[in-house]
Amino acid sequence: MVTTSSIYKCTHEIYCRGKLLHEVQMKSIFADSKTFVDMKLKIPRTETLKKFEALLNKTGDQGLTRTVLQNFVQDNFDPVASEFEKWYPPDWKSSPRLLKKIKDPKLWEFAKKLNAIWKFLGRKITDEVRENQELYSIIYMPYGVIIPGGRFREIYYWDSYWIIRGLLKSEMFYTARGILANFLYIVRKYGLIPNGGRIYYSGRSQPPMLIPMVRVYLDATNDIDFLREHLETLEIEFNFWMSSRTVSVTHNGKTYKMARYYEDSVGPRPESYREDIHTAKIFPHEAQKNNFYNEIKAAAESGQDFTSRWYISKDGNNRGDLSVTKTRSIIPVELNAIMYWNAYTLSRFSKQMGLRKKAKTYTKIAKDFQQAVDKVLWHEDVGCWLDFDITNNKRREYFYPTNLSPLWTGCYYKDREEELAEKLIEYVEKHKCLRFPGGIPTSFEKSGQQWDFPNAWPPLQDMVISGLELTDDPRLIRIAKDLALRWIYTNHRGFLETKSMHEKYDATVFGAPGGGGEYESQMGFGWTNGIVLDLMDRYADQLVPQEEPDDGIALRPSLEPILKYLLSAFMVLRCFSYL
Q: What are phi and psi of 443, to 5 degrees?
């Protein structure tokens, strides 16, 4: 069995490093750096590299023009997506029970079309990949998957938590189980779950949501045999985070073990190679460049790539650009809240299996994380939890929806809930984060990065909505309902306009897709579909026809949403004609 001491890191001389990768990416053979590393080799890599070496000997570096290299790639690689066979989820239903709960005809039609999108996002990796893994960057998985969509042609780790929630509401229990089985297969093989289903992602992970995924699956199915078979593998994944992603934090004279996002492999991200090289040019020394690459990879591990949340400038604030990314120096609220959730859930699972000693061990770990979150990250004067900067030994006094994530995972002392509710209501009112027609913004920093203002991201909406719901305070529950309905309606408006679901939305414009970052906003979109279906099920009796936001906020006039809608309409003709 794989342990965390044998974590796999990619050394593939084409997909992860080497001169061929460097030349293809730096000569911009493809507009999107991800395209090349997703292509299939036609012949084994050793033979491909020999052919490339012969080409270099013939042309020299000066003669290796963009055209020559384009021809080489065309001759030696197959187009993207050649690793998949045609596959529709076998348990897809045209009319899950969820639809019977929705009374409004327009919203019923919306939910029906969201349910149909699962067929479009279903993928199955061919047996050819299993038999010839070295020809592919994709990681073989035995069961079908649901991908996010757009340029994301493979499964992604934390996305899958919200995808599974949606699948369960669509009664697609077999597909959900298969996704979990794939992740467990990967843990046994690699010792962790990579950021996504490609070998070039294997040095980093994403927020550890496997155990919560299994929890929601068990809550829906009571498949105890599945838990019995895979509990040890869940522990392997948890141990990876405990052994490779924790650091000692001393605060007010006491030391706590806390989690952070981290990476220590060499070189730029293969899928964003050119972009990383360009940003790293400001650093004069190779060691500084590689340190930057690791900070960027750690930010990618957070799932929030990129954002000023990870910036630490010389004076310790969050101003600057990607070059001041210091992800590894920040103790994030949501990661430590999730670690508590994992330990607490493993304790519960161990009790179910009759493993009382193991249950006590995980209960102790959960309590340690709960105490650390309370003592290091909670701030009475602010009335909320905040990220902590271990380099400058100070709190990060900026608004992020993740600041509220301990409510989502239950990582707080329940006897203080009434007091916390008062503080948190003051906090959200002070920051006016609930006043936007298109959801809660990811931050209030206008950095141009996609995980900053004005974008509103689906998983962060769910963290806040579900966290507020889980309290016993009627005021917080009412806020959760208002946010949930607003998110459903803004997604509905966007779908009416574009016939697509998007990975993110603009908080300031009702129904408009988001923007910014290092790639165009993507459509599909797995976690967006999952969260909206889940919310429509939970709030079915509250759904009424609504085309405009009800908070009196004027819509921002802009040509950008119109241009986005035109682009989306073009994509719809290609992808959604079956709807």
A: -165, -175
